[in-house]
Amino acid sequence: MKSQLDNSDRIILALIQEDNTLGLEYIASKCCLSVTSVQRRLKKMRKDKTIDKEIAVINPAAVDQNMTFVITVKLERERLDMLDAFRNMIRKDIQVQQCYYVTGEADFIIICTARDMKDFEVLTHRLFFDNQNVRSFKTSVVMDRTKIGLSVLTNG
Prior knowledge:
Helix content is about 40%, strand content about 20%. It is an alpha+beta fold and about 160 residues long. It folds into 2 domains: about 5-45, Winged helix-like DNA-binding domain superfamily/Winged helix DNA-binding domain (Arc Repressor Mutant, subunit A); about 60-140, Lrp/AsnC effector binding domain/regulation of amino acid metabolism (RAM) domain (Alpha-Beta Plaits, 2-Layer Sandwich), CATH 3.30.70. The chain has a 4-stranded antiparallel sheet, with helices on one face. The longest helix is centred in the N-terminal third of the chain and has 13 residues, at about 35-45. The radius of gyration is 20 Å and the shape is elongated. The two termini are about 15 Å apart.
């Protein structure tokens, strides 16, 4: 699928990925467009899902989610209905920040947060031990949040 974005669209996307609170006037000045044109482009990019979601990134420690974990999960079976059931369960869990269906040794890689180890233990029972389709999982405890973000390259 070839992108229909021009250079101004790419500048807008780069700016709002870095700070979604920037004013329209500032964005317009950076891409040499009118405020109305920036508004129109943003509306179009939201509608066509170029902008998939606009969120606030919360510091987990500020809301008592002091630990972050990276978990690899192997399933017993990869039937479509079982994959869908696992995906739906993961999507609904508020402690799961990201989940990727991957190739290689694991079937999924999950990033989640917890208050402490006891809270994480409860999460592992809920997501893995109580799920008969989970063959195994391995956990890595995050020592440092070196880089956080979901930005994608916008320059063609």
